[in-house]
Write a structure and sequence with these properties.
single chain, about 300 residues, alpha/beta, TIM Barrel, eight-stranded parallel beta sheet, 12 helices, 8 strands, globular
């Protein structure tokens, strides 16, 4: 059985970092990486949905990962999402990620065309073969990818010895139980939906990867510790706090990541730019909502750390 301890814990999904012209900012990527190190998270999930990967070029994504690895200096477990909507670019990103010595690569299924399961398996195995010395994580997010990870497909992928787990962002918590039962102890299940972090952990997920973790990592780190200690009532109280904050952020007209980036400016004095079109920036009416969400995070953080 492999030592999978480096994949257990809290993994913020890494945000896209842009300069004033909307281009990838290596400096800001490094600053965000060091911010996560200071916060004490276990690792980061780079170039996924929160990283706005579908709006970036292959070279953009390489630049992001290069600067994450440079700043991390081995202090974070780094999982690099490498999926593109074609196999060739995905393989190129996987090879590049392995050359940088990331801990794992990950991939959603190809989107738009609904491929049969054998074609999805071939796609994932081709990506994995391009990084033959690197762990592979399946990313299951059916509400966006348009296709779900079934147990037969998971069984097929488990034949690949590099497959170490699943980032499961489907909404039913039962899916975590089914994947965990199928994968066994030699398989890491990452809870995806932030709003049900403790539910996923209670059902068997050993870790979480989330898009809102980065704006309030203290809450999720404390939840994780409380679950490990069996203090579910206390963990549930913090989960409700985090959920209220997420619901407040979702009241904005601007994209959620535009909201998150503004909160990072307010609460952490950390500027990582805006979002890339066609994602919508904040509107004037969003200002008071963002300020309220930022204040909610400060209050919740004080209570969590008290």
């Amino acid at each position: 059985m492999r030592d999978l301890e480096k994949y257990r814990g809290v993994f913020p999904a890494f945000y896209a970092c842009y300069d004033e012209a909307g281009e990838i900012s290596p400096k800001r990527v490094r600053e965000l990486t060091r911010y996560f190190i200071r916060k004490g998270v276990k690792g980061v999930y780079v170039n996924g949905s929160s990283g706005e990967c579908i709006y970036q070029s292959v070279e953009d994504r390489k630049t992001v990962l290069e600067n994450v690895m440079e700043a991390a200096e081995g202090r974070l477990t780094v999982i690099a999402h490498v999926a593109c909507n074609n196999t060739r670019d995905s393989e190129a990103l996987a090879r590049h990620a392995e050359s940088l010595r990331v801990d794992a690569v990950a991939a959603i299924p190809p989107i738009y065309f609904h491929l049969p399961e054998y074609a999805i398996a071939r796609y994932w195995n081709d990506i994995s073969a391009a990084a033959p010395n690197t762990d592979f994580v399946i990313y299951n997010i059916p509400q966006l990818a348009g296709v779900a990870l079934t147990l037969p497909l998971f069984r097929e992928m488990r034949k690949n010895p590099r497959v170490i787990g699943v980032k499961n962002s489907s909404m039913p918590v039962q899916d975590i139980q089914m994947l965990k039962a199928e994968g066994g102890e030699d398989c890491v299940i990452f809870n995806g939906p932030d709003e049900q972090f403790i539910s996923g952990r209670a059902m068997g997920a050993q870790a979480g990867i989330g898009g809102t973790y980065g704006v309030m990592p203290e809450l999720f780190l404390k939840m994780d510790a409380l679950v490990n200690e069996g203090k579910l009532a206390e963990a549930r109280r913090l989960q409700y706090m985090a959920d209220s904050i997420i619901y407040k952020m979702c009241e904005c007209h601007g994209n959620l990541y535009a909201v998150i980036k503004e909160i990072l400016r307010i609460n952490e004095d950390l500027d990582i730019g805006g979002v890339r079109p066609p994602l919508p920036e904040l509107t004037e009416s969003d200002g008071p909502i963002v300020q309220e969400a930022a204040a909610m995070i400060r209050r919740a953080r004080e209570e969590a750390l008290a």
